[in-house]
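Before the break, one more example. Copy the sequence into your notebook; we will annotate it together after we see the structure.
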Amino acid sequence: MTTATTPGQGPLSGVRVVELAGIGPGPFAAMLLADLGADVVRVDRPDGPGLGIDPARDVTNRNKRSVVVDLKAPDGPARVLDLAERADILIEGYRPGVAERLGVGPADCHARNPALVYGRMTGWGQDGPLADRAGHDASYIAVTGTLGMIGRPGEPPALPANLLGDYAGGSLYLVVGVLAALHHARATGTGQVVDAAIVDGTAHLSAMIHGMLAAGAWQDRRAANLLDGGCPYYGTYETADGKYMAVGALEPRFYAEFLRLLDLDGLADAHHDPARWPELRERVAARFKSGTRAEWTDVFEGTDACVAPVLSLREAPHHPHLAARATFTEHDGLVQPAPAPRFSATPTGVRTGPALPGTGAEDVARDWDLPQATG
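Here is what the structure looks like once it is written out:
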């Protein structure tokens, strides 16, 4: 395997990743690796992306390069295997068995590169009764018990976009998995398959809640607990202008500061008395309805009451704290979250905008020393 320097920067500089194009958690995981400095080559299909948005605005393809390969063409699998031979990690998100049928499964890749980490991103996993079935984020988080935790009692569970399943339970676990396997491969020279299932990762995220449930500190129903909106000092409240404030005044001293700033008296004991929570919720709600979001933001600014305004996606980049930290960045006119986390010795950044299908073919062929052009 060649060790030529890749064009990335960051702690993963020098790591080569092949991403077989898909949608959702696979591309996001590959973006995270690219943000961390890996040289990510996305293998796009000739029929274009499946997300249905302008590729020039698909932030999940930033910091990558793209080649176009038709895996159903006679030379398609060989082109991907040429890349896999020179890579450290490969990521695919097909249903179980599809990569094998296309000739680019783990056995095919490991025959060319025994040290390759082969990352598989699916919803249901590589085995089990539902492994071959279609699904989406909502399906996966539904059966793990996590979706049932979210929302108001007596109403349908609230879908948290596709952040909980696809990205938290899927992408992040895939990234942890392939990096752990890469560490093992570099120590032993032996690659392996990483089976990252959204159901597994999402269930794993609820570990603390299961511990609380076992200890009798969590009720198995919505909005009846400390962290799910059941507690009046951990939730959201509407303001006079129809906007919202988020409250997280869990600890006694934060709760005391919260009551002081709301100018509410006679409620100190309600902190540990669930019987008084309905009264507490009613009085807190009435106070927040007496002022606008901006007014309450000013009241709580710089305090330890653990209260913050609920901002929209377009508002968030302008929040003073996020602006000061450059949590969001702009690249070629496209506002987007900046790479995270941050590193003191190997800083990361948005090096390039979204990779357009096929635009990196010549550079990849040169940099990866491919035996044939990948169009």
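The longest strand covers residues 39-44. The longest helix spans residues 163-188. Try to locate both features in your own notes.
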